[in-house]
Amino acid sequence: MSEEAVGRWLRLVRADAELSPYLIGVDLDRLTAHLTRQLAAGGVVLDGWPGLPEAQRRRAADYLTGVLAADDQPPGAITEAAARFRVRIEQRCPGLLPQRALPLVVAALARLVGGGTDRAGRLALLAVLGRVHRRYRLRPEHGPLIGAALAPVAAQLCPPQLAADWDRRWSRAWGLIERAAGRVGDGPAFWPAEVTGRDLAAEGVAILTVRPWRRLPFRPGQAVPVCVPRHPGRWRWYCPANAPRPDGTVELHVRAVAAGTVSPDLVHRVRPGDLLHLGPPVDIGLCAAGGGDLLLVAGGTGLAPLRALVEQVAAAPDGRRVTLVVGARTFADLYDSITLDQLDRAHPWLTVVPAFSHDRCVAPAEQGDALTLGLYQYRSGQDVYVCGPPAMLDTARHRLPAAGIPTNRLHLPRIR
């Protein structure tokens, strides 16, 4: 990386109220040259910035991580491919798809046909493309037209060997889109949303507040596909951590996955003022119905949809009691502790139970895994909602019914 990258990093630091005071009196030319040399050598240590405390050093390193994140697909390639696709589709069927939607649609179609995504990512893609199908009233005869227009430009965005098997791949992708269109209902295919707030809440975890340009019609417990502009063909599921608000903002809890593409961008690179896209909200089995008591068991950022259920009850208290068990490895990993404490103090019907699986110095908090403490808190008649990492969900699926929780009262996230 070059001096230009360091310059972009310095602009972010100057705009940060916590970091900018530490630039006073610093020889910026010397700091820039020092970091540029370290970047050229393949690593960066912020030791050329004397007097920077450790907390601020981590904050500055977070900005640098964002600047250095490599582009997975140059935005220009998507723009060019969308322009070429538009010319070809307009020749075959004028007005079929609006110009403003084409970059996202072309990137999503190419990603779906090219493969290379996991099941959850593919289902997020299909939720968006299914809405595109319904929104623009596509019919079976449009499939071959779109496929023929896409084939010549997909080579820019997909593996080279795709062309040799294009017809079969496109036929399969179009069939998936048609089936998805029958499941997603009506409404916009995606909502542009501005990032209005960002909090690096724990190591590798960010809380983002976004404001869609049009109100997003979601319910607590639903999941929403999210896309960042730098990776327009990749959509990932995130659950809003709040009930609908008067100002329309949505809070997203994101953990950076080491092998991921979208989540590291959301955690390390996205800043207030940036634009994201949100797809159509989808039920994943966590929407609370009825008026019975609730036991909510969260692991990691699985807290997000369960916190939204707590806010839903708070908005219309009806006498039900709610117990929220929040699992984390250590106290430092309990990233939303301030909000949880505020909720616990504000609502006498709510009991928040932190559970720390790898921290022996947490008294008077509980030590142990979230599922074990959830079983200890369980009372007959409660509806039980569990959300967390895949390993936790696999264990819950077998362990909780074996411990006596009726399967019709056990709710785990699922995306179909």
CATH topology of the largest domain: Rossmann fold
Number of β-strand runs: 12
Distance between the termini: 42 Å
The CATH class of the largest domain, by name, is Alpha Beta
Number of domains: 4
Radius of gyration: 24 Å
User: How many individual helices?
Assistant: 13
Q: Output the helix-strand order.
A: HHHHHHHHEEEEEHEEHEHEEHEHE
Give the rounded overall mean pLDDT. Answer: 87
What gross morphology would you assign? globular
Strand order of the largest sheet: 4-3-6-1-2-5
Explain what the structure shows.
This protein has 13 helices and 12 strands. About 1% of the residues have low confidence. α1 crosses α2 and α4 crosses α5. With 416 residues, the chain is of the alpha/beta class. It is globular, with a radius of gyration of 24 Å. Helix content is 41%, strand content 16%. A 6-stranded antiparallel β-sheet has the order 4-3-6-1-2-5. It has a 6-stranded parallel β-sheet with strand order 10-9-8-7-11-12, with helices on both faces. The protein folds into 4 domains: 66 residues; 107 residues, Globin-like (Orthogonal Bundle); 88 residues, Elongation Factor Tu (Ef-tu), domain 3 (Beta Barrel); 118 residues, Rossmann fold (3-Layer(aba) Sandwich).
Brief overview:
This protein has 416 residues and is α/β, with parallel strands linked by helices. The chain folds into 4 domains: 3-68; 75-181, Orthogonal Bundle (Globin-like); 191-278, Translation factors (Elongation Factor Tu (Ef-tu), domain 3, Beta Barrel), CATH 2.40.30.10; 294-411, Rossmann fold, CATH 3.40.50.80. The protein is built from 13 helices and 12 strands.
